[in-house]
Design a protein that fits this description.
Elements lengths: L2 H16 L5 H15 L5 E8 L4 E9 L5 E3 L3 H9 L3 E3 L17 E9 L2 E10 L7 H15 L5
Antiparallel strand pairs: 1-2, 1-6, 2-3, 4-5, 5-6
Helix pairs in contact: 1-2, 1-4
Amino acid sequence: MSKEANYRITNKQLAAVIGSETNLIANLSNAAALLFENLPDINWSGFYLYEESSGELVLGPFQGKVACIRIGIGKGVCGTAFEKSKTLLVEDVNQFQGHIACDAASQSEIVIPLTINGQKIGVLDIDAPITNRFDKVDQQFLEQFVEILLKNNQA
């Protein structure tokens, strides 16, 4: 099956699983599991959520090994993607200035910001144990995945 076909199925599965559910944590939990099960060659998928009181990203629902709990805004790939409100696709995390190595096995990463009603709420983070795992196709379909994921939370 092609990468595109796999993503189309994954995105349809997400829409079916979520249905009309509006509980964000429940939806993030199932989304992390769906990505972890459906995407080949990844070792972590999950979310960091913005905590206003600390001004940090805090670990949310995920699948994979134990992860960093708090990430400063502008720090590492996740904090930078959140700060810039921009998807970051990193072919080799060892070449990313300020990369935070929560799992030394991770070699590439993609991070997509989460926004509801114009307000940044966190990021989707996916890591892979190989370099050059993610490309523009991954970015396109994962950005669609995030849109589907957050559609029920657009108040």
